[in-house]
């Protein structure tokens, strides 16, 4: 089984962007750790990142045929994108939403997520470890 790890806008700058909020690890580090975790559990990880809303929607559509689960950090689209929510509604597998920072401790505009209403679980404020924690949950659910 395949798990899609989808990261949204600005997350390509992980490790360089506001490290006091998002930490020093890069997206490449995250991908490597998640791929090792998935492989060890007999799953395949397909990691992708885009700064473009439509591309993220295309990735979610592709997941309909290719993935049993999606772990997604939609970045700022979390707070704006009904279209990403709709795409996730059209996906039948597991969905876990990850935020590196605790969005609830930050600006009010980060407190609402369009994605959470479709997510099987939400992690915020666990740093980049949140991706691995979400993946561990996927592994236990997919058996
Ligand atoms: C984020 C939180 C969002 O509010 C922000 O726009 C991001 C990253 C996080 O991982 O903490 O780009 O999703």
From TrEMBL:
The active site is at residues 22, 99. It catalyses: 3-dehydroquinate = 3-dehydroshikimate + H2O. The keyword Glycoprotein does not apply. CDD domains: DHQase_II (cd00466). The record marks 17 as: Transition state stabilizer. Keywords: Amino-acid biosynthesis, Aromatic amino acid biosynthesis, Lyase. It is an enzyme of class 4 (lyase). Pathway: Metabolic intermediate biosynthesis; chorismate biosynthesis; chorismate from D-erythrose 4-phosphate and phosphoenolpyruvate: step 3/7. GO terms for biological process: amino acid biosynthetic process; aromatic amino acid family biosynthetic process; chorismate biosynthetic process; quinate catabolic process. It holds the Pfam family DHquinase_II. It comes from the Bacteria. Substrate binds at residues 73, 79, 86, 100-101, 110. Signal peptide: none annotated. Its EC number is 4.2.1.10. One of its GO terms (molecular function) is 3-dehydroquinate dehydratase activity. PANTHER family: CATABOLIC 3-DEHYDROQUINASE (PTHR21272). Homododecamer. Belongs to the type-II 3-dehydroquinase family. Catalyzes a trans-dehydration via an enolate intermediate. This is 3-dehydroquinate dehydratase. The lineage of its organism: Bacteria, Pseudomonadati, Pseudomonadota, Alphaproteobacteria, Rhodobacterales. The gene is aroQ.
């Amino acid at each position: 089984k395949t798990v899609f790890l989808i990261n949204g806008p600005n997350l390509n700058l992980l490790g360089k962007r506001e490290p006091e909020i998002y930490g020093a690890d890069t997206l490449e580090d995250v991908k490597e750790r998640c791929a090792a975790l998935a492989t060890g559990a007999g799953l395949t990880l397909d990691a992708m990142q885009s700064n473009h809303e439509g591309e993220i929607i295309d990735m979610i559509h592709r997941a309909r045929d290719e993935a049993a689960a999606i772990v997604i950090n939609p970045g700022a689209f979390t707070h704006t994108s009904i279209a990403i929510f709709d795409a996730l509604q059209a996906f039948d597998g597991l969905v876990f939403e990850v935020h590196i920072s605790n969005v609830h401790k930050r600006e009010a505009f980060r407190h609402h997520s369009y994605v959470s209403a479709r997510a099987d679980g939400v992690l915020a404020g666990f740093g980049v470890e949140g991706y691995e924690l979400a993946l561990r949950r996927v592994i236990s659910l997919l058996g």
